[in-house]
Amino acid sequence: MAKIIDGRKIAQELNESLSLEVENFRGKNGGTPKLAVVMVGEDPASLFYVKMISQMGKKVSIEVEKYSLPEETSERELLELIDNLNRDRKISGIIVQVPLPPHINQEKVQEAVSPFKDVDCFNPINMGRLALGKPEFLPCTPYAVYELMKREDIKVEGKHTVIVGRSNIVGKPMALILLQKEPYANATLTICHSRTSNLAYYTCQGDVLIVAVGIPEIIKKDMVKEGAVVIDVGTNEVEGKLVGDVDYEGVRDKVSAITPVPGGVGPITNLMLMKNTLKAAEKLVMVNEQ
Ligand SMILES: NC(=O)c1ccc[n+]([C@@H]2O[C@H](COP(=O)([O-])OP(=O)(O)OC[C@H]3O[C@@H](n4cnc5c(N)ncnc54)[C@H](OP(=O)(O)O)[C@@H]3O)[C@@H](O)[C@H]2O)c1
């Protein structure tokens, strides 16, 4: 029987330890870490996500300040706001919700966020640092997977890890994190994507299989190795139900451990954003003291 990895329990433990860390920070420095969330327009998925971030902030006592700008905001106005937030000593971290309206260049905006406040790790400087093995911040979703692996004692060293998906927010940084010369990393990797022919040939070789594709239940029982650890990052809505990229019911009896959807990686992700915000706040204190 596979171990079902309980992401909600891990999130609860992380929540408790992070709340204590924030309390210590406040005791030492007086102020509270503050996350600025910038949103342009009213994309419903973004509105929902921002609400979730605000709730998470309350749980761990990190202040979340929302900047909701109208759809017609110009790129220059948005860049001016980011510049002000970069300079504001009370703001520890900044995230800019995507999608942005089509008249705004997303890359330009993401590059404008100071690398020291880039808690989503979208600034190319931070991605570059991660690629060089000297990360400032880790992108939240792969960071959540890494944290889950540590807490569940899932070691990849000496094993074959297969990642399906190479997006800039999940698959690619996941690979970079697991390539680090760090405990719970040092992975030997294969990365698959939409142009991989015979996906099953590769996924069947994964002692650890991490899937971030966005296609409901694309990974079937005959595509996983017996006894593998399967981590499903996918979140897809099918007929009003949330399902992963892995056929959970089909796969669970064949593997040694698996994350469910919902209740696996998802609950941990926003906590990593808060963890990054606290880290940014600590760094800001050090810089201000110099
Ligand atoms: N749990 C969380 O907190 C969390 C956070 C973020 C995302 N997610 C979920 O994770 C999933 C992936 O998100 P994403 O942002 O990485 O998606 P994305 O940007 O659409 O990237 C999907 C990746 O899957 C690859 N792919 C597509 N079809 C494939 C196929 N048939 N076979 C193999 N690979 C294929 C794509 O290949 P190409 O590069 O060749 O196009 C791409 O690299 C989604 O379900 C998303 O909702 C969950």
Top keywords for this entry?
six-stranded parallel β-sheet, 10 helices, Rossmann fold, three-stranded parallel β-sheet, binds NADP nicotinamide-adenine-dinucleotide phosphate, 11 strands, about 290 residues, about 15% strand
Walk me through this protein's architecture.
Helix 6 crosses helix 10. The strands form three sheets. The protein has a six-stranded parallel β-sheet with strand order 1-11-8-7-5-6. It has a three-stranded parallel β-sheet with strand order 3-2-4, sandwiched between helices. The protein has ten helices and eleven strands. The chain has two domains: 86 residues, 3-Layer(aba) Sandwich (Rossmann fold); 127 residues, NAD(P)-binding Rossmann-like Domain (Rossmann fold). The site of NADP nicotinamide-adenine-dinucleotide phosphate has 25 residues, from helix 10.
Number of helices: 10
Query: Strand-and-helix sequence, N→C?
Result: EHEHEHEHHHEHEHEEEEHEH
- Write down the overall geometry: globular
Name given to the CATH homologous superfamily of the largest domain = NAD(P)-binding Rossmann-like Domain
What's the CATH architecture of the largest domain? 3-Layer(aba) Sandwich
Give me the secondary-structure category: alpha/beta
Q: Distance between termini?
A: 55 Å
Bound ions, cofactors and other small molecules, one mention each: NADP nicotinamide-adenine-dinucleotide phosphate
**What composes the largest sheet?**
6 strands, parallel
Main CATH class of the largest domain: Alpha Beta
